[in-house]
Write a structure and sequence with these properties.
The protein is built from 9 helices and 12 strands. It is of the alpha/beta class. It is elongated and about 100 Å long. The protein folds into 2 domains: 144 residues, no CATH class; 150 residues, Rossmann fold, CATH 3.40.50.300.
Length: 300
């Protein structure tokens, strides 16, 4: 009797293993894996986006063994990240997806970092056209939410954290004018396709006029804090030529505010080393179209 039971258990176990193998093979033949490698130049936008996006979904699942935890002095909270070999499950419009982070050291000594994204082949088109675009958009939003604003001089490699306390809630300004500025800023940052469609550089200019102490710097700080834009300061007295004006503009980054102060003193200076046409071209000509989502503030 015991022999019969042992044979029955063995038969059932063999059948289950066979079915599991068939299921595994069937799944293998119906799955597709995308390899998303880290690239130095130009950077792989999808790889960088995955690094930001994955920690926002649930990293802890039954198969999770290790999670990397980091925190810098400038961060308010700890950050979680996947370790090599760990898998993260995600879902998008009814599609189940599986991310796997891999760090592989080759015999040559070079180290390869990559993500492997696995899903059923039938969803390839939606994953390629919709899901990956969604991941990139979410990463951009995450980057902006956690962005630390920096203050720089266009001729200095160093930068400091911009901690000006001024916001649109704290500055003294006529309420109607304040709302008008806020709406104008929101309209500007949301109209990328419009600027592209009409063939104009995606930039915005503001002219601030008033004696010292009237709140020009506070308004600029409020704009930077509201948009989370870096701030670059340009001192025209240090400009040697028109070519340096161009270099100054090229040194600024996208999503930034360029502040040109005391422009009236520089324009009226007979000993200035750049031309007025060069300054105008710098602010509104061809060179001003280099880069996206930039605001130029001229303070008088």
């Amino acid at each position: 009797m015991n022999f019969i039971m042992e044979q029955l258990v063995l038969l059932i176990s063999t059948a289950l293993n066979y079915l599991a193998t068939l299921f595994s093979l069937r799944r293998y033949h119906h799955d597709l894996t995308l390899i998303i490698r880290e690239e130095n130049w130009p950077p792989n936008q999808v790889y960088d986006a995955a690094h930001l996006y994955l920690p926002t979904i649930d990293l802890i699942n039954p198969s999770t063994r290790t999670i990397r935890v980091t925190k810098t002095p400038r961060q308010e909270a700890v950050k979680l990240a996947t370790e090599s070999g760990e898998q993260v499950a995600d879902a998008f419009e009814g599609i189940n997806l599986n991310w796997r982070y891999v760090v592989e050291k080759h015999p040559s000594g070079c180290v390869e970092h990559r993500f492997e994204l696995t899903f059923q082949k039938e969803h390839k088109d939606k994953v390629m056209t919709s899901y990956l675009a969604y991941v990139v958009r979410r990463a951009e939003a995450i980057k902006q939410e956690s962005k630390i604003i920096n203050l720089s001089n266009v001729y200095s490699d160093s930068e400091v954290e911009f901690e000006h306390p001024a916001t649109f809630e704290t500055i003294a300004m006529e309420p109607g004018l304040k709302q008008k500025i806020i709406k104008d800023l929101e309209r500007f940052v949301s109209r990328r396709e419009f600027y592209k469609k009409v063939g104009k550089a995606w930039k915005r200019g503001y002219l601030l006029y008033g004696p010292p102490g009237t709140g020009k710097s506070s308004l600029i700080a409020a704009m930077a804090n509201y948009l989370k834009f870096d701030v670059f300061e340009l001192e025209l007295d240090s400009i040697e030529s028109d070519s340096e004006l161009k270099s100054a503009l090229l040194s600024t980054t996208n999503r930034s505010i360029l502040v040109i102060e005391d422009i009236d003193c520089s324009v009226n200076d007979e000993e200035r080393r750049y031309t007025l046409s060069g300054l105008l071209n710098f602010m509104d000509g061809l060179w001003s179209s280099c880069g996206d989502e930039r605001i130029i503030v001229r303070a008088y």
